[in-house]
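Narrative summary of target 7.
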Amino acid sequence: MMKHSLSFRSMVAAGLLTASVAASAGSVFASASYNASTSFADALSSTTMTIAFDGSSYWSTSGGGQGGTRLAQYDAGGSLVASFAPGLDFRSVFTDAANNVLARQYGDSTIYKQTAPGVFTSLLTLNDGVLDQQSSVVKDGSNYLAMVDGTVSQWDAAGNFITTVSLSGYGSVGGEGGYPQSRGIAVAGNYWLTYDGGALHAWDHAGNRVDSTALNGATGTFDANFSLSYTDNKVFVVSQSGGTWNGYDVGITAAVPEPESYALMLAGLCAVGMIARRRKAVAA
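Modeled conformation, tokenized:
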């Protein structure tokens, strides 16, 4: 698969993005490209899926069958601790706000929770929505999120379907509409991230592409396009199964208030100001 490493700005210059998309571009990424800030060896065989960090350990996964070693644990420095055969054909692994390790497997609407290293039990079921059998599932705040072919589905904390959002222009840049990158999504702050052979794209919650950047050294292998993850405040992509996990600090570390949140904040400040003025008036 061909590697794509064009930045958002060079894509605009080359005419690969429409004027309307360019006009909505923001500045999510401070740089047109990033070097990996963390690297360590992948301990699993094909096909590599995603990786998660629970505050003390990294957990990487693989899929392609339920048998064999499909889960690896690493310490915070990336050294292998142990590997497991948990009986899941993983499509994603991720954490919740309490750093519990959660997972989704192939063709299954169940979300599983790790209760001991390598041991997973059913947590909840994602009902309705568009959940492709290959899609990775991740957390977005208290909600769950999955994407296939540019359609993002969202479920609440109990697994009830909320809505779908179409990513405007998805598939028009590079090879992002191809498989398996077309079934992977990550969440960083208030943005959704997609990946295609070295190119990382950020989307707002309305489905607009707001910025793109290149991950230097990232590849377009089958495993790499399956592996997109955001954990430990970094974007992670594997080079290939049994190869190298590379983590990129792209400068998104926390969610920022949505416009509605800003409005509530301003309203609260105004209310506090009015109360203070009234107290002064009474005192006078």
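The helical segments are 8-13, 19-23, 222-226, 259-283.
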